[in-house]
């Protein structure tokens, strides 16, 4: 049975794209795991191995599209794009939702259990991390390579000091940036 594992990186950040990857492994790859449980150096090594020994599709959805259509619609679009690109018997997506895509089987913590999803997790995270580090060169006031656009205290402070950039998700409104009534 051919399994396509699917995972995403960048669902919750305040800046940068959403990256969704689908992977069908042609060979077993040692040391796969959830991308968050692997060192950056090991992720880079596995990223190259996965690309060489799999069929894969990486979908990048920019922040403007997330702002225009919403996160769920963007995930739905990415899942459909992966399914149309990679032919498999089963499409397993890390999480608890199909996002309206019938062929998708959501499994909570699949990125820790299923090797194809682990591989997808690594492709998505490494791709997104590279994009965020490149964005730091364009926006040197923001430590995108460090916080990856997530709503850390440092990132919130950068937004307060420098304002939003063209890569920020305008539809994501953290409470710490909202005016208070008092």
Description of the molecule:
- The longest helix is centred in the last third of the chain and has 24 residues, at 115-138.
- By secondary structure, this protein is of the alpha/beta class.
- A hairpin with an 8-residue loop joins strand 1 (3-9) and strand 2 (18-25).
- The mean pLDDT is 94.
- The relative contact order is 0.23.
- The protein has helices at residues 40-52, 63-69, 71-85, 110-113, 115-138, 144-147, 153-162, and strands at 3-9, 18-25, 54-61, 90-94, 104-107.
- The chain has a domain at 3-129: Ribonuclease H-like superfamily/Ribonuclease H (Nucleotidyltransferase, domain 5), CATH 3.30.420.10.
- The protein is built from seven helices and five strands, in the order E-E-H-E-H-H-E-E-H-H-H-H.
- It is globular.
- The N and C termini lie far apart (60 Å).
- A five-stranded mixed sheet has the order 3-2-1-4-5, with helices on both faces.
Mean pLDDT: 94
- CATH fourth-tier homologous superfamily of one domain: Ribonuclease H-like superfamily/Ribonuclease H
Question: Given the structure, what is the number of helices?
Answer: 7
- Unreliable stretches, pLDDT < 50, 5 or more residues? none
N-to-C SSE string, H for helix and E for strand: EEHEHHEEHHHH
Report the oligomer: single chain
Q: Which second-level CATH architecture of one domain applies?
A: 2-Layer Sandwich
Shape: globular
Secondary structure category:
alpha/beta
Largest sheet: 5 strands, mixed
Q: Whole-number radius of gyration?
A: 17 Å
Strand order, sheet with most strands: 3-2-1-4-5
Strand content: 15-25%
Fold-level CATH name of one domain: Nucleotidyltransferase, domain 5
- CATH class placement of one domain: Alpha Beta
Total strands: the figure is 5
